[in-house]
Design brief:
single chain, 182 residues, alpha/beta, Rossmann fold, 7 helices, 5 strands, 48% helix
Length: 182
Amino acid sequence: MKVNRVIITGGPSTGKTSLIKELEIGGYNCIHETSREIIQESLANNSDVLPWKDLMKFSEKVILQRKDHYHSAKSKHSKKFTFFDRGIPDVFAYMEYDNLEIPKEYLELGDSLRYHSKVFLTPAWKSIFENDDERVEDFRKAEQLEHFIHNTYKDLGYEVVLVPKGTIENRIKFILENLEKE
């Protein structure tokens, strides 16, 4: 069975992880975001591999993990979709936001490792927005990052589908219905 790699993306604290966890409970193969793990490890080791200290080093680590995740995606049970909490192009958006030049090899990865044509973007949502030790962006920056993420995927030829705000169940239903229309 062909693996359809579907990205759920958006700025920080927009409900992506909650959707991924619920999809996983529903039997879908899901690839979790690893940025938090990298940040936690860097904080514990007093390392500068943090997006707010050295975005280039951080991006390198993230993109390598996302490349591995892309290749490890497998369909599970009878489900034909594998859901990703962010994808390789998200790295580009964060780098563009910080005015960093995206290395040629990253762009080549983005061209060669393609996801499902529809990318689901969870919009900035003030009432669920939270900060913590790993998520230091404020709401304004989250809104700005959303714009960069949207444009990055659009520029790479993906159809960006805005996921309506609502319950986790309704958001998942919206995503699955959009995928089944094909």
